[in-house]
Amino acid sequence: LVVLPNWFGETLFATPFLRALHRQRPAARVATLGWPQCRDVLLHNPHVHELLDYDERSAHRGLVAKWRLIEALRARRFDTAFILRRSLSRSLLLVLARIPARVGFANAKSGWLLTRAVPAPPAPSHKAAAYLRLLDAVGLSGSEAGGFDYVVDEAERQMARALLQGLPEGDGPPVILHPGANWDHKRWAPERFAALGDRLAETRGARIAITGAPDDRPLVEAIRRRMRQPALGLAGRTSLRELGACLERAQLVVANDTGVLHIAAALRRPLVALYGPTSPALTGPLGGAPRTVVLHHPDCCPQVPCYRPHHPSHPGMEAITVDEAYAAACQLLRPDG
What we know:
Layout: E1 2-3, H1 8-13, H2 15-24, E2 31-34, H3 36-42, E3 50-53, H4 63-76, E4 80-83, H5 88-96, E5 101-105, E6 116-118, H6 127-136, H7 154-163, E7 174-178, H8 190-204, E8 207-210, H9 217-226, E9 231-233, H10 240-249, E10 252-256, H11 259-266, E11 271-275, H12 280-283, E12 292-296, H13 315-318, H14 322-332
Parallel strand pairs: 1-2, 1-4, 2-3, 4-5, 5-6, 7-8, 7-10, 8-9, 10-11, 11-12
């Protein structure tokens, strides 16, 4: 059993761990336990046999519901559990489910419930690499992270083709802009996304789509209103799986540091990644160096990473210019697609 982190972007960071575990123990049955929103990230993943939900806020909020989950875990008779986050409640679930080997990171809050507590890395490292350290603790190899995994099926591709029929006319490359992020200070300015979209449409014939969650509709519409060229607004019109299939069809993705950026990286799409208050070294895209340009000005930031989501502005994002984003986009937009 692999207990996942909460965010769907960090669930993608766990896919190299799942891949390495399955390849080195091909006879083992691998299940995951995580928030329901993590399920979509791992759907169709060939290295996971079962996706189990743990929703403390709803389905498993009460003691009776938690006990039913514990009984379900007991019935599966897991011999080993890896917990990828520091969590007292989740570690206690593993104990009550009678899973004999419990491997996780040493910490004062829940480390005493583990049978193997792995020390934190001696130096800051990418979260994907940190997760792999847990494999070393059980005699497996966690030496190579590789890229993230995200699998799109044919039904999802058909949905994406239908959605993208609304792109502006032409035969230029489809380009997806993703201006949202979970924190405002991780977002590049809407007027800069608009200026970049216009420039790519006017000079490269790009057909622009702007994606986002339902809450991002005002942001996406504000960008479209600022643009001189037409753009397809997809905020709130796709599920996560449909959005992933749309990303797969893009010849370029420009995104802030968010889970969608990492889906694009997992799909090996040409990617301009915009970073400000977070560190690409710790949470950056992996596995696609020739196809990825990360724009980041850490010297402009008061602190990196900065975990103050209500900070009124962030000089790191403000330091990324339209000119440099356009240059990075042109570097990745090749005539052959």
